[in-house]
Structures are given as structure tokens and as C-alpha cells.
Amino acid sequence: MSYPETIKVGFSPCPNDTFIFGALAQGLFTPRLRYETFIQDVETLNELALEGKLPLTKLSFGVFPAVISTYELLPVGAALGFGCGPLLVARKKPVNLARIRMAVPGLHTTAYLLLRFYLPELGQVVPLRYEKIIPAVVKGEVEAGLLIHEGRFVYQQYGLTALVDLGKWWEKETRLPLPLGGVFIKRDLPYEIKRAVLADLRESLNLARKNKAALWDFIRENAQELNPEVINKHLETFVNHYTYDLGEQGRKAVEVFLKWCQSRGLLEDLPQKFLFDGEAV
């Protein structure tokens, strides 16, 4: 069959994403398809997915309920695990979370959705790009900030203190890893194309696992925090066995997350199949 000339793929500049897609983006192997890469913060990718703009993209699981009829999850490339959840930080304790002005990394992020699960009644919410949240808290523009990505490793350097670890809260409630982000593909693409994409992503990841050094410059030039120790800590936290394959426990965690969304009116019907695994249909 004929493939489209290119598959446009969106991912964020965060180290775990550039690790996943780096070999593909830099042409370190010959893929089955041709790709055009588009690097943007995850909330921009979430917003584009709401319009169905990108055929292949990294997304927050927080936006999945809103796009589940358009996209399905791939079993590779996920940011999912224990001890990796968003942190709510402030300059001082205590604060009344129901009355404060709080910065969040986007209204469609998993972090914000988790915060709503944890505390349905919030004060004033200020959406900011994730890298602008720590400066906003430090300057007193907001009283608290919800941190994702590299921010969770460096906030103490700015004199901030953690109020809530939403990952630990999720783990206590579910005893499952927290689904933060995943790689999603449009449902209406032909089966053969989706299967080829999945194979290319697996090859990109395997090359990254075998030779991180070949990707280091690409990872570092896109990272918000340039300290090698922070970058490596980020990779150790967000790239794990669930990234290479969700497995049974990973799929269960996503299913439970979607059921939580359904119980709170964010998802009308849970599709029988929300994951493309490449198996024959």
C-alpha cells in the first residue's frame, strides 16, 4: 500500500522525550517511514491533539479522555512509574490551597488533572509553561506552583518547599504506577502504517538504550536544565521498563486512570480498545 510522504511527530524538549525520539529525529537508523519532527512543550501538543492536528504525538494522559475517540495509545514511549509524580511547591508552609493563586503547567496536563482529583476546590489557577512556574513562585507572582519535568529536581535550589507529592498520593490510592504521558497515534491511520510507526519507535528506543552518548548533544540542547546530573536524574526517573513496554501493570494503571476520569464525568464511555499493540485484528 502507499504511505503518506511523511508522518509528522510531536514531542516535548524534555530529556525523556528527546531520548525516546532522538535516534529517529537524528537519522541514526533507516526507518520504515519518513518523519517530520515537531518539538514543543507538552501543553501545546495537548492543544493540537484536541484539534487532531498531529498523526503521531507525545501527550499528557490528562488530555486522553478528551481525545480518546481520535487517538489511541502506543505501548512504547510512556512516562509512567513510581516516584515520578508532579509536586506542588510554595515559598513557605502552610497555605490554604483552596484560596491561593496557583501556577499549573497547562489545563490539559496530567499534573493539573491529578490536582483536581486531589483537591476539587481550587483557588485561582494560572496556566504557565512549565519552565516559567518556578520563577513565578520565587517572584511572588503566584503563591504555589505545580511542577513537572526537570522542575521537580531543582525546586529546593530556589528556596521552595514541597506541599504535596501527587505521585505518592496516587500510588497510595491505587498501588499502581502513575501514568504521566504517552505516545499516541491517530486511530484513523491505516493499520500497516501504525504497525510501521510502532516498529520504528521501538528501534529508536533500543538504539537510545544501547548508546545514550550518541544522543547526548541532542538531549542537552533541548533540555531546560543543562546540568548533566539533572538530565541524568530526569532520565533515570522517567525512562524505565514501562517506557520500553507498558506491560500488564502499565496497561492496568492507564485503565484505572481512565476509570477515575469516567467516574468524575470527564469521559463518557471507556472504549474497549484504547491501545494499539500491533497485533493482528
From TrEMBL:
Pfam families: VitK2_biosynth. The active site is at H149 (proton acceptor). Coiled coil: none annotated. It comes from the Bacteria. It is an enzyme of class 4 (lyase). Its EC number is 4.1.99.29. Gene3D superfamilies: Periplasmic binding protein-like II. Substrate binds at K58, L59, S60, T110, A111. Pathway: Quinol/quinone metabolism; menaquinone biosynthesis. Keywords: Lyase, Menaquinone biosynthesis. GO terms for biological process: menaquinone biosynthetic process. One of its GO terms (molecular function) is carbon-carbon lyase activity. It catalyses: cyclic dehypoxanthinylfutalosinate = 1,4-dihydroxy-6-naphthoate + dihydroxyacetone. Catalyzes the conversion of cyclic dehypoxanthine futalosine (cyclic DHFL) into 1,4-dihydroxy-6-naphthoate, a step in the biosynthesis of menaquinone (MK, vitamin K2). Belongs to the MqnA/MqnD family. MqnD subfamily. This is 1,4-dihydroxy-6-naphtoate synthase. It comes from Thermodesulfatator atlanticus. The gene is mqnD.
